[in-house]
């Protein structure tokens, strides 16, 4: 198939073989950075074991990775203006590789582990925009549509391919650290390809960067501060560490206030809050972020709890999400087609929310435990809903945003959506633990009748239950509480998305198609990076 394509027709300068190699390298680099989050989820129990700590400490590193990635979206474009797309991409890929090796090397020193994982997330966030810019630079202008189409093949992979890949390294190969070593090696090879095949990109050595970095430092510190509050909440279940939590809240409020003042007074603000004067931008972004917490939270808890409660391996838990990829991208493409031909994006977003509600309700109706094969079918519906919902919501949010502001608007969308995903990684654990504890209490209190009936039905009256029997009882109660929590979580999410399907009609009906085709395609490509 590759040989049948005349790649020379697409290339602006490079020979066909080098042009194809650069396409493959940038595509793989994009896939690796978006998989860096999703592939880590199923191996969190393995990571916790390697750290010699509980699961919350492994989750801590994951949530910091995603939070740093979110903040990095805002600084990537100023770095590109100053240093050019080539050097920005090179720096990001090399930093990602080095940080990945540092993650593996620092397992015995937990603060270094979390720091390395945070730096890796920053590098991932910085790499995306300059990599797409490099790709477009190599294509003839009338073939930019092909470039953006190839770029978006990685879309939705964190929710589908990522968990399966992580499970493969964690269970089939038996060592999750091999994934980090492989990712680092691949990124260094890609950096070499970029260095060899691309020339200097357009850049402005006099572009202001110091003020951006100051604002970025304050914003990142505020984002990580509130993230640490949620991370501490995992350890304490929001019942202890009160003093530490209050200090973190005070630090966040101070940093947020400093950022607001400094950003408002800057000639080159990191976030242009004037974007929120557009009604659909403010309303749509809030809706998207809230909905995304439900999607991300369900993914995190499903991957983790199906291993700890139902005993699935990391490999089987990861494979469970592959069906999401089957329909997510095709439905996203259809949504783009329908929107470009005048369909109301609110209708598509509503259909996506209804699809989520139906798939979550379906998942919540299983009588657990159930067979692995039967759990696959709702994921197909969830994938179709994901493709429709994300694409339509981006179109709603960007309604009437002027072309000159759309690239920055997409960066803010990605930052807001990703940072809420980071927060819910931690908070979903807190919600799960509290509901599961309530379910356990319901099964065993206010009297011990349930436990007595279970023992009476299992053991003769003449035999006194021993320690092992009470341990088995505790295990059964914990498992049953987990199944109850599973179904309660999915039923709650189904109700929430049914509400989103109704609320989305409060958005403005007016939709203006973008007049600049290249801009539209770039905006759509960046807006779908999950």
List the helices and strands and how they pair.
Blueprint: H1 16-38, H2 44-51, H3 55-105, H4 110-138, H5 144-151, H6 161-172, H7 177-197, H8 210-236, H9 242-264, H10 279-308, H11 314-319, H12 323-340, H13 345-364, H14 377-397, H15 403-444, H16 449-458, H17 467-503, H18 517-527
Helix pairs in contact: 1-4, 1-6, 1-7, 2-3, 3-4, 3-7, 3-8, 3-15, 5-18, 8-9, 8-15, 10-14, 10-15, 10-17, 12-14, 13-14, 13-17, 15-17, 15-18
Q: What's this model, at a glance?
A:
The protein is 75% helix and 0% strand.
Radius of gyration: 24 Å
- pLDDT averaged residue by residue: 83
- What's the number of helices? 18
* CATH class descriptor name of the largest domain: Mainly Alpha
Question: Can you count the beta strands?
Answer: 0
CATH architecture of the largest domain: Up-down Bundle
Series of H and E elements: HHHHHHHHHHHHHHHHHH
Largest sheet: none
CATH fold group of the largest domain: Growth Hormone, Chain: A
Q: Could you tell me the strand content as a percent range?
A: under 5%
Tell me the count of domains. 3
Structural class: mainly alpha
Overall geometry:
globular
Fourth-level CATH superfamily of the largest domain: MFS general substrate transporter like domains
User: Residue ranges: pLDDT <50 for 5 or more in a row?
Assistant: 512-516
Distance between the termini: 29 Å
Q: Helical content, roughly? A: over 70%
